[in-house]
Amino acid sequence: MLSKLRLLRPPVSSGTRLISAWECKNYSDKKNSSEKNHRRKTTPPLIEVIKPVKINYSKRTKKNYEPVNISKREIQTKYNEPLTLCPLVSKTESCNNSNPPKSSHSPETLNPVSETNNEWQNGSNNKPYFKNMSLIGGAVILAGSLYGIWNSDILKLKKDDSSIKEIKKAKKSRKLIQIPALSQSIPDNVQYLLIGGGTASFAAFRAIKSADPTARVLVISAEGYLPHMRPPLSKELWYGDDSEMAKSLNFHQWNGTTRSLFYEPDPFYTPIEELASAKNGGISLARGWKVESINVSEKKVKLNDGKEISYDKCLIATGSVPKTLKLYNDASQDVKDKFSVFRSIADFEDLMEELNHVKSIAIIGGGFLGSELAASLANKGKKNGVKIYQIFKENGNMGKVLPKYLSQWTTEKVRDEGVEVVTNTEVENCSLDNNGEKVNLVLNNGKNISVDHVIMAVGAKPNTELAADAGLEVDPNLDGYLVNAELQARTNLYVAGDCACFYDNQFGRRRVEHHDHAVISGRLAGENMAGAAKQYKHQPMFWSDIGPSVGYEAIGIVDSSLNTVGVFAKGNPKDTSLSTNKTDENTTINDTDTPAELESKNIFENNYNKGVVFYLKNDVVVGIVLWNLFNRMSIARQVLKSDRCYKDLNEVAKLFNIHGDSS
Ligand SMILES: Cc1cc2nc3c(=O)[nH]c(=O)nc-3n(C[C@H](O)[C@H](O)[C@H](O)COP(=O)(O)OP(=O)(O)OC[C@H]3O[C@@H](n4cnc5c(N)ncnc54)[C@H](O)[C@@H]3O)c2cc1C
């Protein structure tokens, strides 16, 4: 069971929410799904499953992965800006380049040849015929030799290098798709304005439309893509043999059905020119457009081209941006070219492409993203012999979240996937090797690692760049826009998702960077924008899948610096007899266990395959991790809600029926 990667585990819902038609549809899809994929069959997801959409790509839009299931005429009008996503330069193209790089054809070396040519061409001199003939002969021989050398192995390498450089250039010159092309088409005033085209924004416009069916909603997204989810970018999209499917941003989810990364296909959105006049309102999207500033008192935003839009209600859902390392920030451009971050569809596409050209990648960071990517890239890179390193300062993968023993166990699983995991280590410096081909990472353990590419997965920072100008407060400790329990920063101005620092009734001020929180907070903000005045009460959960054998869900405060008690099913859950064995034979692990005690509990004998970990503050359970144990989130939620000291957590663990079917 564990060998099957869970494919986009849908977040668990609160009991009281409205289940809309699309959710019911998806729910019944799941009920009909095959037995072998029946994980979580009773939990309707919050996010719509889009029926496998047939997505075709026009040549011009292919690299942008823009669905073009619209007519050609529409493409011409919608894509009336030249799409300059450079095609990858092939070897032949780079050989035939009429503007060869300056370094290999400097004016100094060309000059003498041109002089000779001039003499030959204008025939104004009286040089003997044989001299001309010998020049021709010499030129032919030279050309022949050059051709030979060009095709020899010596230069083949160089040619490949130049095409890699061209790929890099192409990636850099990736031009953002802007639809509509001109801001005149965007309405001057709207009822609901949502800043951001991510998950929180998507959940908000769904909620607004449910509460106010004729609402006019305008979404402004800085990304050139339709609103989409991010979790499959580091997981599902890397698995499976169908690379075309990954390129079209479709993936198999846990129940075997195919799903698109995009929440809705293009035709779902009301053409922006029609939003103001549409009889039943609608949701329009301006993508590739950025809100530069908000004037809170005048209820107006300004776009990057200066266009102003006034609103009745506005949501800020600008998400987060990846952090980078100081050693990267201080590096020269040549070195920087070897580094990347990972958050967006464009990052995914670039990395997919990179995998075809490199032999080694180092991922810096041991958290969710670094660990998921390490396992996914090791799996994908196996065929091409790409070596994956993962370097981080903690003791083991997910060391800031998981108790030490579990984090170390996870690290062994990541190693089993073929990743060379380097723990307790920091990268101190970086430089290019003599050929400028590899980047040399200098580690604080005295060793060096030389790789073709480096990915920084060192956390994210909430995107609060609109705060200062708008006079909005940012939390000095947790970062993120400060909002109250109704997710309000000011009257008529709301914040949701990664960038919101909200008031949680149970645990106080928090900021959460997870999918479920983006859904829940986005939906609540949407409801409140439509007049509900509800308070944030739902505890967000999150999940992660690290390769095929580690998958977990968590809720509440899960911080490895807290005391924990873990209860794990004894033995190997692959042994089917266990699923019928209800004898509660568990191993309980406390943080205080010494290495000898852990040894006696047989920690390296697969005892952590399945279980539950309780996180305690003053003996009260404040967080729970369900380890390879699914469909138990509602129980975890109840335990958390009870907010009390439990004398024997082994007894509480029984509620989770660890030995039962975890599907
Ligand atoms: C690779 C990856 C994998 C993940 N996997 C998981 C997982 O397994 N489980 C989990 O719980 N969470 C996961 N997460 C986290 C989760 O995806 C985020 O918490 C979630 O996307 C946050 O949603 P959001 O709407 O707040 O922000 P985002 O999804 O980041 O959306 C923000 C949007 O705002 C736009 N924007 C920003 N500034 C402006 C502006 N000035 N004007 C206009 N638009 C603007 C951005 O372009 C973007 O479209 C993952 C994240 C990543 C990157």
Automatic annotation (TrEMBL):
The protein's required cofactors: FAD
UniProt family annotation: Belongs to the FAD-dependent oxidoreductase family.
GO molecular-function term, one example from the UniProt record: NAD(P)H oxidase H2O2-forming activity
Region called Disordered, residue ranges: 94-124
InterPro entries in the cross-refs: AIF_C, FAD-oxidoreductase/Apoptosis, FAD/NAD-bd_sf, FAD/NAD-binding_dom, FAD/NAD-linked_Rdtase_dimer_sf
Domain Mitochondrial apoptosis-inducing factor C-terminal positions: 525-641
Principal subcellular localization: mitochondrion
Spans traversing the lipid bilayer: none
Keywords: Apoptosis, FAD, Flavoprotein, Mitochondrion, NAD, Oxidoreductase, Transit peptide
Start and end residues of each FAD/NAD(P)-binding domain: 191-520
Entry GO CC: mitochondrion
Subcellular localization: Mitochondrion
Protein name (record): Apoptosis-inducing factor 1, mitochondrial isoform X1
Gene3D superfamilies: 3.30.390.30, FAD/NAD(P)-binding domain (3.50.50.60)
Reactions that this protein is recorded to catalyse: A + NADH + H(+) = AH2 + NAD(+)
Biased composition (Polar residues): 108-124
An example Gene Ontology biological process: mitochondrial respiratory chain complex assembly
Biased amino acid composition, Low complexity: 94-107
